[in-house]
Specification:
By secondary structure, this protein is of the alpha+beta class. It has helices at 26-32, 101-104, 110-128, 204-216, 266-273, 287-296; strands at 37-42, 45-50, 53-54, 67-73, 79-85, 98-100, 140-142, 147-149, 156-157, 162-170, 177-183, 194-197, 220-231, 236-245, 258-265. It is built from six helices and 15 strands. The strands form four sheets. Strands 10, 11, 12, 13, 14 and 15 form a six-stranded mixed beta sheet that branches. The protein has a three-stranded mixed beta sheet with strand order 1-5-4, sandwiched between helices. A three-stranded antiparallel beta sheet has the order 3-2-6.
Length: 300
């Protein structure tokens, strides 16, 4: 299997044109421009033109969204907007239905997938953070959808991004073994990398060490960064790592969040990546899958 490019090299889908957000009327101006594209979002789904492509619309074709946001500009200068619905149900039909990011993200062109992630991340904040957390007043959307201003206490609020780590663990002596775990919420045959949110005052590397000790019982060495992925569930930045266990025999599940841990041989991983064998791996839209694929392909 061919190794992927490093995860830290982003796909540049849009120029976010952040300087344009300073104009109070950026959304209105963009809606009026010829050629502007809009992506509708309801909950975590967007309309699809085909199972592998998003259904882009002109702003005047989008029926009464609750919020608009300016996502940026394409290389050809055309503005791109998010049209956000607060209800969960899709507000209109689409040629290929509506698809959630988890389900269709890996099937989309990488540039379209990157726009979907940006739009959904912002849309979830617009849905969930309508009120000032300091005084409880309804805040006003500003900066093309990228901030809120509280008319009562004057505070300005921005979309949050919560860092989380996700790590696969290599064997201290056998390069063909990889440690993965199974979460209590999953089917018994599904295994993935270990993940957890960064705590206050904690570095990313310290989080990897803590999480792996808590969830899998292993002490680590050679913690090394591999790449990152914006993941709007709920508002995460997943930061990927590899690390090496000091004592392979110490691996054990915590019995609360992780119910099983196993050292998998490279041949087992290869079969699972092809959909064979008795083990299921994470879906292709996730950074966890990418980390496992890159280890299998020799890019660890």
């Amino acid at each position: 299997m061919t190794a992927h490019p490093p995860l830290s090299v982003p796909v540049t889908a849009l120029d976010r044109a952040a300087e344009e957000r300073a104009s109070d009327d950026i959304v209105e101006r963009a809606r009026a421009e010829a050629g502007t594209l809009a992506l509708a979002l309801a909950r975590d789904a967007a309309p699809l033109a085909t199972p592998q492509t998003l259904a882009w619309m002109r702003p005047d074709e989008v029926p009464s969204p609750d919020e608009w946001a300016f996502l940026g500009r394409r290389a050809d200068g055309r503005a791109v907007l998010a049209a956000v619905y607060l209800d969960d149900a899709p507000p209109f039909s689409a040629p290929a239905g509506w698809g959630g990011l988890r389900a269709v993200g890996a099937e989309l062109d990488p540039a379209e997938s990157a726009v979907f992630v940006e739009a959904l991340s912002l849309a979830r904040w617009l849905r969930d953070a309508a009120f000032c957390p300091a005084c409880g007043s309804r805040a006003v959307v500003c900066a093309g959808g990228w901030s809120r201003q509280c008319p009562s206490c004057g505070r300005e609020h921005f979309p949050r991004t919560d860092p989380a780590v996700i790590a696969a663990v290599t064997h201290p002596s056998d390069p063909d073994l990889l440690l993965l775990g199974s979460n209590i919420l999953w089917e018994h045959d599904r295994f993935s990398c270990f993940a957890g949110f960064v705590e206050a005052g904690e570095s990313l590397e310290d989080t990897v060490v803590r999480e792996l000790h808590e969830e899998a019982g292993v002490a680590l060495t050679a913690v090394r960064y591999h790449g990152s992925q914006a993941w709007p569930y709920p508002r995460s930045l997943m930061v990927g790592f590899f690390a090496t266990a000091l004592d392979a025999a110490a691996a054990r599940p915590d019995g609360e969040e992780i119910v099983a841990v196993r050292w998998f041989h490279r041949d087992e991983i290869g079969a699972a990546l092809e959909g064979k064998g008795e083990v299921r791996l994470p879906g292709p839209a996730s950074i966890s899958r990418r980390i496992i694929e890159d280890w299998y392909g020799g890019a660890a």
